[in-house]
Design brief:
The protein has 14 helices and no strands. With 433 residues, the protein is mainly alpha-helical. It has one domain.
Length: 433
């Protein structure tokens, strides 16, 4: 078997499973909240979820950016620079964590109003959002440690940590919401405990002293920090795009269909989180290999790994859309505990239209990861910005104004398609280098 494929299979399988586990933080909340509080609780949760994308995106930005730089330097044998990268990664994350924590303490109510919550769901949304933001430092630290452990030869441990955290969230959701009857507050606390448990699992890596990176007590280096952030910016943009899409869609759907429409979109959006997690797992799996190959000057290995990733994305996308198209009634029913016929039919329509863009999403995510891991963040950032901001927002407003809810759902696929065509041009150019 080809050595490049062995590496690809090793890293991507671990990361896909781990990212699926990580995405289940919110999916588990969605399931239990829908069971406990119906469509109103589901709408409140969907309004609050984009903020999770924001701080998780910041965690991935510093984690992926720092780990990419670390892997390149490690391949070149630069031990001193490796530790400086890790140190500046942690310091950068500390500043970001404090910001999100303070927003949670002092600005959660205004933030909920900006996100579009009406009086029917305001209280539930505020409670969930405030608790989630107070736990944001743990999520960000967890993202960093996962990225560095993965790039330091521990992909399976990183996977085990993510899966353990996710599984514990499912158990704690049930305990807090149904045994202790804590409602949406219990869902938020259960989610907040998950990264703590994940970090406990990964502590084995440091206890056994397997880590080749160490924190050094030195003042921050602005140049190193900037390079870390710019390298990981595409990861932030990918998460921000998910969050911003949800915010824009929620605001439009509230006007078109009310809270029931938001709940219907929430079902599709949360399934999308899991699907995107698979693509992100593939992207994060190829990152250590491509960064190492870049450090070694082995361009052929990088291109081979990119091709493996593209084929995997195509196969996954075909399987996903087949499940959505033929199983939408069952999927909607899982989250529709009160048997709301309007919610059921609307959720099926949204899912079938929204997921027409899943193939393009996957290719765009791995393309951005490929350029970022190759030390070419500009192309990665262009791809991420196009799909996350430049195309989707105007497309959502224009297409929803013309075709209503159907146009809104298809605007997602249209933006991803245009970005996909551009990413093909970038990849073709890179492959000829």
């Amino acid at each position: 078997m080809n050595e490049h494929f062995k590496d690809y299979a090793k890293y991507t399988s671990a990361n896909v499973l781990g990212m699926i586990g990580l995405s289940c933080y919110i999916l588990a909340d969605t399931f239990f909240v829908s069971r406990a509080m119906g469509s109103q609780g589901l709408a409140a949760l969907n309004i609050a979820i984009p903020v999770y994308n924001f701080f998780h995106g910041c965690g991935l930005m510093v984690g992926m950016g720092g780990a990419t730089r670390y892997a390149i330097l490690k391949a070149g044998g630069f031990q001193k620079e490796q530790n400086r990268v890790f140190t500046n990664t942690v310091i950068s994350a500390a500043f970001i964590s404090v910001l999100f924590f303070l927003i949670g303490i002092f600005l959660s109510a205004p933030l909920v109003r900006v996100l579009g919550a009406n009086e029917a769901v305001f209280s539930m949304c505020k409670t969930y959002l405030k608790i989630l933001l107070m736990f944001s430092p743990m999520f960000i630290l967890n993202d960093i440690v996962i990225c560095f452990v993965r790039n330091d030869g521990g992909p399976r441990l990183a996977m085990a940590a993510m899966l353990t955290g996710s599984f514990s969230n499912i158990i704690l959701d049930y305990v807090f919401m149904f045994v202790f009857d804590m409602g949406i507050k219990g869902a938020a606390i259960a989610t907040g405990f998950s990264p703590l448990i994940s970090l406990m699992v990964m502590s084995v890596f440091f206890i056994k002293r397997k880590n080749c990176f160490h924190f050094q007590y030195k003042k921050p280096d602005i140049k190193i920090a900037f390079r870390i952030l710019s390298t990981g910016a595409s990861s932030l943009a990918a998460e921000l795009s998910s969050g911003i899409i949800m915010i824009v869609y929620n605001l439009i759907i509230i006007e078109l269909e009310g809270n029931t429409g938001v709940a219907a979109y929430g079902i599709a959006a949360n399934i999308s989180l899991v699907v995107t997690a698979v693509y992100t797992g593939i992207a994060q799996g190829i990152q250590p290999i491509i960064s190492r190959s870049t450090g070694e000057g082995n361009h052929r290995a990088s291109v081979s790994v990119l091709k493996y990733a593209a084929v995997t994305v195509c196969l996954v996308s075909c399987a996903v859309y087949s499940c959505i198209f033929f199983g939408s009634d069952f999927i909607a029913g899982v989250f529709n505990s009160v048997k709301d016929h309007e919610l059921q039919s609307m959720a099926q329509l949204v899912m079938k239209l929204y997921f027409t863009g899943c193939l393009f999403v996957g290719i765009n995510i791995i393309s951005a990861a490929f350029f970022s891991a190759s030390g070419k963040p500009s192309a990665a950032n262009i791809i991420s910005l196009l799909r996350g901001f430049v195309l989707i927002i105007p497309g959502a407003f224009v297409m929803s104004a013309i075709w209503g809810l159907k146009g809104l759902c298809l605007s997602f696929a249209a933006a991803e398609l245009v970005t996909f065509l551009l990413s093909l041009c970038f990849n073709a150019k890179k492959s000829r280098c």
